[in-house]
Design goal:
Number of helices: 5
Number of strands: 0
Order of helices and strands: HHHHH
Helix content: 40-55%
Distance between the termini: 64 Å
Structural class: mainly alpha
Length: 110
């Protein structure tokens, strides 16, 4: 008797679809941020969870795009550190503001 391997829901998704889902979570995080109340850190928890999930999905989309298998990615579970390491190996470039430029000090985007 042959055992059929079960597929998990996201296994057949394309990188672009995962990226689009990440965008939706990012938009949701932006909306949830507005619901947070000063002095009440728990009111920001839904924002943080949505933002973290968006980041996880963006990293997953990049890894799929760069040829990593869905099974390999799934084995990482929710380990953002492992995803980030692979994403950096896949040429992800993180940008940090240069504190010595006038736009970084004033918040203006040039």
């Amino acid at each position: 008797m042959e055992i059929e391997e079960r597929k998990y829901p996201g296994e057949l998704a394309f990188p672009l679809q995962i990226h689009e889902l990440a965008e939706e979570y990012r938009k949701a995080a932006t909306l949830l941020l507005r619901l947070g109340r000063p002095g009440k850190p728990l009111t920001r928890a839904p924002f943080r969870l949505s933002a973290i999930h968006a980041i996880e999905l963006y990293l997953t989309a990049l890894l799929l795009h760069r040829g990593h298998s869905p099974n390999q990615i799934r084995k990482m579970q929710h380990d953002l550190s492992a995803r980030t390491e692979l994403a950096l190996e896949a040429r992800l470039r993180l940008r940090a503001p240069n504190i010595f430029t006038p736009s970084a000090r004033t918040g203006n985007i040039s």
